[in-house]
């Protein structure tokens, strides 16, 4: 698995990088360990500055969920292909997977309580339930950065 040192999201997160070739091994390993895989599709941090914020939050979520999550960052050159596979419509996004099954996608930066609530809901629901997407929460008085 090649680590691209110039990828600011990967550097900020300190997590491994996956691409179209290595993502299934990562997700299988997380599943075998009894964890849900969480993939960060960051996008271009120059275009989506909040990608760096999500890259900082992801390891904190992994720690907070005490072994129930394993995180990785999707390589920039694999984001289009893997984004289509996992249903990413907005970057940055966190993709939660149990093995090969996508549980849900959480888009944009969120409040900590939103992450904890949504992730708890996604990883604790019975198998086979439909995946969900959490849209960005932007207060009416705050302009979008996109």
From TrEMBL:
Top-level taxon of the source organism: Bacteria
Pfam families named among the record's database cross-references: HyaE
Coiled coil: none
Family: Belongs to the HupG/HyaE family.
Annotated protein name in UniProt: Hydrogenase expression/formation protein
């Amino acid at each position: 698995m090649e680590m691209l040192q110039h990828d600011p999201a990967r550097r900020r997160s300190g997590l491994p990088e996956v691409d179209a070739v290595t993502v299934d091994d990562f997700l299988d390993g997380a599943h075998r360990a009894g964890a849900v895989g969480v993939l960060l599709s960051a996008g271009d941090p120059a275009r989506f500055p909040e990608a760096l914020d999500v890259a900082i939050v992801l390891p904190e979520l992994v720690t907070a969920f005490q072994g129930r999550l394993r995180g990785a960052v999707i390589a920039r050159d694999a984001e289009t292909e893997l984004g289509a596979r996992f249903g990413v419509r907005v970057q940055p996004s966190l993709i939660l997977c149990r093995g090969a099954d996508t549980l849900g996608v959480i888009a944009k930066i969120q409040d900590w309580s939103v992450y904890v609530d949504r992730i708890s809901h996604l990883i604790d629901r019975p198998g086979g339930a439909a995946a969900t997407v959490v849209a960005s929460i932007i207060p009416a008085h705050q302009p979008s950065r996109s």
